[in-house]
């Protein structure tokens, strides 16, 4: 099972989906595009536990973290 984690001002929301289910995969890709379109930054975690920023949906990513745009003051 793959996970998309969305960070926001309320904490985090986890969306778990089966990457072998075409319907679930399509919904995950739609969520990815929607969040990136809203200004979230997406990062996938590699096997060593490090995150790397990504700009495109990776259906093989086991974990994708979305965090909102940081606003300076």
Q: Can you describe what's shown?
A:
The protein has one helix at residues 22-37, and strands spanning 2-8, 11-17, 41-45, 51-54, 63-67. By secondary structure, the chain is α+β, with helices and mostly antiparallel strands. The chain has one domain (2-67): Ubiquitin-like (UB roll) (Roll), CATH 3.10.20. It has a five-stranded mixed beta sheet, with helices on one face. β1 and β2 form a beta hairpin. The mean pLDDT is 93.
Fold blueprint:
Elements: E1 2-8, E2 11-17, H1 22-37, E3 41-45, E4 51-54, E5 63-67
Parallel strand pairs: 1-5
Antiparallel strand pairs: 1-2, 3-4, 3-5
- Structural class, from secondary structure content? alpha+beta
Helix tally equals 1
- Mean pLDDT, nearest integer? 93
Query: How many DSSP-defined strands?
Result: 5
Low-confidence stretches: none
Strand order of the largest sheet: 2-1-5-3-4
From the N-terminal CA to the C-terminal CA, the straight-line distance is: 39 Å
Under the CATH scheme, the architecture is: Roll
The CATH topology turns out to be: Ubiquitin-like (UB roll)
Q: What is the radius of gyration?
A: 12 Å
> What string, H for helix and E for strand, traces the elements in order?
EEHEEE
- Look at the structure and give the CATH class: Alpha Beta
Shape: globular
What proportion of the residues form beta strands (DSSP E)?
35-45%
What is the total number of structural domains? 1
């Amino acid at each position: 099972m793959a996970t998309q984690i969305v960070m926001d001002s309320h904490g985090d929301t986890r969306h778990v989906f089966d990457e072998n289910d075409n319907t679930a995969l399509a919904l995950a890709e739609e969520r990815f595009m929607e969040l990136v379109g809203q200004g979230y930054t997406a990062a996938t975690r590699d096997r060593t536990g490090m995150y790397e920023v990504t700009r495109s949906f990776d259906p093989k990513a086991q974990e994708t973290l979305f965090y909102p745009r940081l606003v300076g003051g």
